[in-house]
Design goal:
single chain, alpha+beta, BirA Bifunctional Protein, domain 2, Rossmann fold, 2 domains, seven-stranded mixed β-sheet, five-stranded mixed β-sheet, 28% strand, globular, binds adenosine-5'-triphosphate
């Protein structure tokens, strides 16, 4: 049974060092969380799973890591400066501020139930910055609210450095910042979060084909790479489309409180490259774009066969990495009754995602012979380069197993007195708790098999 409430995950995250409240010792800061020793590993493994699928397994997508702070002109022409806002309402009775489109009932305050609610006003979500020695406090730059815009503005740089024929894509994983009105749901809605986005540039006549292809590809990734059961995921097409979008579909996951968005797959037509390009009048831009007087570069593509120079369409896949990690943890979380009044919490993660790949445990603490062998096994496993291998020299085997069950370590390796006689160790498996005696020489091969399952 996966976690019944997000609170199960919040407690585990704090207890075992996955996620902490940001600025906690000073009372916290809404919408900011810090990732601890096992949280950084799980996030890294999710990022790697995405990068492997989107870049290393293909020939048509390039990686990029653009700056988090950017010239405000990017956000003027992307439309964010004028239009990236949420509808803010306030309760006249208790003063609660809410995002109108996410209220349980827009006519009643979510906090106190009062019907005295102000009219909505547009609330800018971008975080402005004042940078440079001459800055006088006026906003002259922004923290990016998404990775996508910096991908569009690098379109020509990437294409010139690494020529591609259409279709091809550019992918980024990185931080994004939004001044959300009401952060909620633990890491579900934060003010600083991480996105994994890919923009796929296509010939306008191929847009629908590639939108469908990416919907299928991304859904299969959630199932196969993250281990989320297909029946816990669904597509939700947007009923109301943004003016530039031809189609927009979310992938939603069944969180304990109901289905909610984890990734968007959108057909954005030629809006983005069309908005940021120089010499807009030379192109037939389909989307409604702001006249651009500042761009220094044509963001167009020349077809090598026909010689036609045009603005490609964009199919975008935009995933929230923190929401992915939350869904993975909810799905992997199990509370098991072991009989005799005993129970355990176990995180049944796919071994590829596990923060620790294996723990080596000498049965007794500080026994030099056992510790030497354990250290040698740790050394051999670290040479495999598969991620974190831990040595547990506490002498409390039961506690060690419980800790590693809770952080999702797929296998523990116990070194005991029999090891000194026959060079074998016990492998203890997380999911079944089954134990198996294995020759030390065979351990690295066995661990590799488990991690690559
Ligand atoms: P929402 O409707 O939930 O505000 P969005 O449609 O604005 O999200 P996008 O701009 O499409 O989101 O961003 C892509 C992905 O980034 C989302 O699917 C989500 O997983 C993630 N994301 C967006 N905002 C946040 C946030 N404040 N905190 C955590 N993840 C977020």
């Amino acid at each position: 049974m996966p976690a019944k409430t997000v609170n199960d995950i919040v407690a585990l995250c704090k207890r075992r060092g996955f996620i902490f409240t940001g600025s906690e010792i000073y009372g916290g800061l809404g919408g900011a969380y810090d990732y601890g020793p096992y949280g950084v590993e799980l996030m890294k493994n999710i990022r790697n799973a995405w990068w492997n699928a989107m870049i290393y397994s293909r020939d048509d997508i390039e990686g990029l890591d653009a700056a988090l702070i950017s010239n405000r002109l990017l956000w003027k022409y992307s439309g964010h400066e004028a239009g990236f806002s949420d509808p803010l309402v306030e309760c006249k009775k208790c003063g609660a501020r809410m995002r109108q489109d996410k209220m349980r009932d827009p006519s009643k305050c979510d906090n106190c139930g009062s019907t005295e609610i102000t009219e909505p006003r547009a609330y800018q979500l971008m975080m402005g910055l004042s940078i440079g020695a001459t800055a006088d406090g006026a906003i002259n730059a922004y923290l990016r609210p998404e990775t996508a815009t910096t991908t569009y503005t690098n379109f020509k740089n990437v294409l010139d450095a690494k020529p591609h024929k259409l279709p091809f894509g550019i992918a980024q994983i990185g931080k994004a910042f939004r001044n959300e009105i009401s952060p909620r749901g633990f890491v579900f809605r934060m003010r600083e979060f991480e996105q994994a986005e890919m923009q796929y540039f296509v010939n306008p006549s191929d847009d629908e084909k590639f939108h469908k292809m990416w919907m299928e590809t991304r859904m299969a990734w959630w199932v196969n790479a993250l281990g989320i059961p297909a029946e816990k995921l669904r597509f939700l097409p947007h009923e109301k489309l943004a003016h530039y979008a031809k189609a927009a579909v979310d992938i939603e996951y069944a969180f304990p409180d109901g289905f909610d968005e984890v990734e968007g797959i959108h057909n954005r037509q030629d809006f983005d490259l069309g908005s940021h390009t120089k010499a807009q009048s030379e192109f037939k831009i389909n989307a409604n774009v702001l006249e651009n007087r500042d761009s220094t570069t044509k963001l167009s593509y020349s077809d090598p066969q026909t010689g036609e120079n045009f603005i490609p369409y964009v199919i975008e896949t935009a995933m929230g990495a923190n929401r992915a990690m939350l869904a993975v943890m909810i799905e992997a979380y199990n509370e098991e009754d072991l009989g005799d009044g005993k129970s355990r919490v176990v995180l049944k993660l796919k071994p590829k995602l596990s923060p620790v790949k294996a723990a080596v445990i000498p049965l007794a603490r500080n026994v030099p012979e056992l510790l030497n062998i354990s250290n040698n096994i740790v050394g051999d496993l670290r040479k495999l380069g598969i991620g974190r291998i831990e040595l547990e020299n506490s002498g409390n085997i039961g506690k060690n197993y419980r800790r590693h069950d809770e952080i999702g370590t797929p296998v523990c390796i116990t070194v005991d007195h029999q090891t000194l006689e026959d060079n074998t160790v016990t492998l203890r498996y997380r999911d079944t708790m089954a134990q198996e005696r294995v020759a030390i020489a065979d351990v690295p091969k066995r661990i590799l098999e488990i991690v690559n399952e």
